[in-house]
Model the fold of this input.
Amino acid sequence: MKRLHGRSAYVTGGSRGIGKAIARAMASEGAKVCVADLQQQSLLELEQEFKQQGWDLFTFQVDVTDRQQVEQSISTAVEVMGSLDILVNNAGIIRDNLFYKMEDNDWDKVMDVHLKGAFYCSRAAQAYMVKQRFGRIINLSSVSALGNRGQANYSAAKAGLQGLTKTLAIELGSYGITVNAIGPGFIETDMTRATAERLGMSFEELIAFKTKEIPAGRTGKPEDIANAVLFFAEDASSFINGQVLYVSGGPAV
Done:
């Protein structure tokens, strides 16, 4: 039997990159999947892909910083899927700049998407999970939570997600709900491609540079993160709670 047979999942920012890989992995392991994202065209393309694979997919165009949109989409997701067992808070953006150049909106927008979005989604989802006395909440943090030049806003938001993870693990654990976080290292996505542009180099040059720093001898792929999500999502991980797993090809420092 597949690892997530009979389970249902809600993935934010799931139409591209890491989120898309997570949605694919969960569907391939038997889960019903709901993807919430702002990118309507990407959602339509994902729907077509899942249909061709014969996988169950429901999509919502959702701004995770809008409480009403989040609560309505999660309520509808429960109606169409029958339950909500797994929440993956993946939605995120970057507004990189050196601290002294960072504008108020650069700070506010990153905080809102990463932290407020995870807060709204987790609060809405746990209401259903508590009733069924089962749930998996998986937050996407980053090695940048440990500090990274040019990412004061992003680093603070990702560190905040780790604090949220550990607190929710304490509060929700007695209801059969585990809350864990994954901290990706350098993963080849559109977001890291944007980082290369900010640094004034090609994406290939950035990959080559990063590869030299990574003990595993390669950069990460979205599927590497999806595999870690599956680990936290399955029933067998019920005694793993409040943890941060860095997926970075080497020790996080």
